[in-house]
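Task: sequence design from structure.
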């Protein structure tokens, strides 16, 4: 093999090694988060919806865009948690709503709004 190819082959091998390492790290992080969420206790707690947001990714060229939906919840003790939620539930809670949030680790499981009866004069 000609000596002129050695730097090129070295660069290709180096890029493949670094790419493989990054790939394994990303997959490992996802597996760890999945396992951690599975081991977490399912919690239902009173809270207030304080904010909602969306995150759009992709959408350039021939690629379709994807949208992730998030809601932030504030607990009675003042602590906050932001959870990704399904698109079909994103429009239901509104900032200021009070209710029961059910979640497991970083997984949103549901939010049940407290309904208040409106009296005559309110």
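Answer:
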């Amino acid at each position: 093999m000609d000596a002129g190819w050695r730097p090129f082959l070295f660069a290709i091998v180096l890029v493949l090694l670094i790419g493989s390492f990054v790939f394994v790290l990303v997959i490992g992080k996802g597996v760890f988060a999945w396992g951690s969420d599975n081991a977490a206790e399912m919690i239902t707690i009173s809270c207030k919806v304080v904010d909602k947001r969306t995150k759009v990714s992709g959408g350039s060229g021939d690629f379709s865009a994807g949208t992730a939906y998030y809601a932030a919840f504030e607990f009675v003790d003042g602590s906050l948690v932001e959870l990704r939620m399904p698109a079909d539930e994103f429009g239901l809670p509104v900032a200021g709503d009070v209710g029961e949030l059910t979640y497991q680790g970083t997984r949103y499981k549901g939010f049940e709004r407290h309904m208040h009866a409106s009296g005559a004069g309110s």
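The CA atoms of residues 1 and 9 lie 11 Å apart.
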